[in-house]
Design brief:
The complex is a heterodimer of chains A (269) and B (234). Chain A has 269 residues and is mostly helical. Chain A has 11 helices and 2 strands; from the N terminus they run αααααααααββαα. In chain A, α7 packs antiparallel against α11. With 234 residues, chain B is mainly α. In chain B, 52% of the residues lie in helices and 4% in strands. Chain B has 7 helices and 4 strands; from the N terminus they run βαβαααβαααβ. In chain B, the strands form 2 sheets. Chain B has a two-stranded antiparallel sheet. A two-stranded parallel sheet of chain B has the order 2-4. The radius of gyration of chain B is 17 Å and the shape is globular. The N and C termini of chain B lie far apart (35 Å). The chains are: A mainly alpha (269), B mainly alpha (234). At the A-B interface, α6, α7, α8 and α10 of A face α4, α5 and α6 of B.
């Protein structure tokens, strides 16, 4: 299992090959929010176009994802987060004082998550995905990520809030294994604790109001859909006594695997 | 009116979320006089002895979550009436006011959502007599306990749910509880790492997960109503 396998399986292949091939190579510098197509991201990753059509299984994404696939998907995100904090902590002058201690604690957890997921995948007879190579500047969009704490913490917030949404979106695919489901939930809430703390370090509320993106303007996709108020078919606006801003804060929303990979892939070379 | 006979009546009150405006009005009187607010039971699953039965299956788990959200909502509603909050810093007031709304939104939603498929439990009678709502440490320490407990409760309850739509809703809520827990810990504790401290996150980087029995035992000192969880899955 590699990230290519995941991308192959969960890409929606919405665009014809010639259109994909025509995508300008400088698209990588586009914002998260402007990246509308996952297939386009495959190009941004430099993937061979042919590889995308080995298994055009749009139906697969709709008929269930295996526990091992979810775990490998999670492992990619944890690799990304762990590498991000490791690099940040080893970048002289970037982090100091309480902020550094917060990042140390978060980084410790992400590294532990990598080890835990790797071990779990092995114990289930799977093959852990290889660690990707990351470019946290996203092709230059965040050129000062490891020299400017403002940029570093903005990306940290984006990664943590994405992580929360990613795990939430996969819970339903883990019900066949209660132990894995519970462990994933136990990671999910840690990511939410991280997100809250980083947000507050940056002067944001620990929770997400509407779909407000309080990181870099490029990260709108991280918050898209967070303003949903309908749960279990009930529009909560009609049954709660709080204002709608508070209502949207009270419920975090999931992202699908392709949506998450589209975000993560901006940082994978 | 049985609770009038209890020995420790101060700050005991009962919440009816269907009539929150009245609650707020009357609970001001609670603080002023030490008297009690007792609202009658309505069309809920409350027995004649005042106990509630959570029920079985997914509905039982939803009622369990509803019970916890009631507890949290009642706590923060009381916090907002206390002198610590009223004289608190702008940052802490914002955090507590937001959390009060979030927990109220959770409880009110559960009541409505459960009602579409079954009968939700009634309003729980809570006992916060051990909390000093004029004292910052007392309030925030209790908030920390409740938020960490809520996180562990949802983390442990996920495996007990069959319907993945319910699982998703639980997921939508638990991460907000975790955001609360981190914020409360951050303003209460001097250790900058407390937001996800080693006291709650293990060596694998996993948050706590608790069974309903463990959670209800931990919540029991704050809940007067007898909760029958005997039919919960697990």
């Amino acid at each position: 299992m590699t990230i290519l396998n995941l991308i192959d399986k969960y890409s929606q292949f919405a665009e014809p090959a010639d259109k994909i091939a025509a995508t300008p190579t400088n698209s990588r510098r586009e914002t998260f929010g402007k990246i509308g197509s996952f297939a386009k991201d495959a190009v941004l990753l430099g993937l061979p176009i042919g590889a995308m059509f080995l298994t055009p299984t749009k139906a697969a994404a709709q008929t269930g994802t295996s526990v091992l696939e979810v775990l490998n998907f999670a492992l990619i995100l944890e690799y990304l987060e762990a590498a991000f904090y490791e690099t940040g902590l080893s970048s002289g002058g970037l982090l100091s004082g309480d902020t550094r201690m917060v990042v140390e604690q978060i980084g410790k957890h992400e590294t532990a998550h990598v080890a835990f997921l790797t071990s779990t995948i092995n114990s289930l007879g799977g093959t852990p995905v290889a660690k990707p190579t990351f470019d946290f500047t996203a092709g230059g969009t965040f050129a000062d990520v490891f020299s400017n704490p403002v940029t570093f913490l903005a990306l940290a917030q984006a990664f943590e809030d994405t992580g929360v949404r990613a795990y939430k979106g996969q819970a339903g695919n883990l019900v066949s294994n209660d132990d894995v489901l519970q462990a994933a939930l136990q990671i999910h809430s840690v990511e939410a604790r991280h997100a809250s703390e980083v947000r507050r370090l940056r002067g944001s509320k620990g929770w997400i109001t509407q779909s407000a993106n309080t990181t870099a303007p490029a990260a709108d996709a991280v918050y898209a859909g967070e303003n949903n108020t309908t749960h279990l078919g009930v529009d909560a606006k009609t049954v709660v006594s709080v204002d709608v801003n508070a209502l949207t804060e009270a419920y975090d929303e999931p992202l699908t695997m392709p949506e998450v990979l589209a975000i993560a892939s901006l940082f994978i070379v | 009116m049985q609770i009038l006979k209890k020995a420790v009546p101060q700050k005991q009150f009962q919440i009816d979320f269907a009539d929150r405006r009245r609650f707020l009005k009357y609970s001001g009187a609670v603080l002023a006089t030490g008297a009690l607010l007792v609202s009658g039971c309505k069309d809920d699953d409350t027995s004649s002895d005042g106990s509630v039965k959570l029920g079985s299956g997914d509905v039982g788990i939803l009622n369990y979550a509803y019970a916890l959200e009631q507890l949290e909502a009642a706590f923060y509603a009381q916090v907002l009436l206390g002198s610590y909050y009223i004289g608190g810093s702008a940052e802490e007031k914002q955090i507590l006011a937001d959390i009060e709304k979030h927990e109220r939104a959770h409880a009110e939603f559960f009541k409505a959502a459960i009602a579409t498929v079954a009968t939700p439990i009634g309003a729980l009678e809570v006992d916060f007599s051990m909390i000093d709502f004029s004292d910052r440490t007392s309030v925030l320490s209790t908030a920390k306990t409740f938020e960490d407990l809520g996180v562990a409760a949802y983390n442990g309850a996920g495996r007990l749910l069959v319907n993945t739509d319910y699982l998703l809703v639980a997921g939508k809520i638990v991460s907000v509880e975790a955001r609360h827990a981190a914020a409360i810990r951050s303003i209460l504790d001097s250790d900058p790492k407390s937001f996800a401290g080693d006291d709650v996150i293990d060596a694998n980087g996993l948050d706590r997960a608790m069974t309903p029995a463990q959670v209800l035992a931990a919540a029991n000192p704050f809940i007067v109503t007898k909760i029958d969880a005997s039919d919960l899955p697990g």
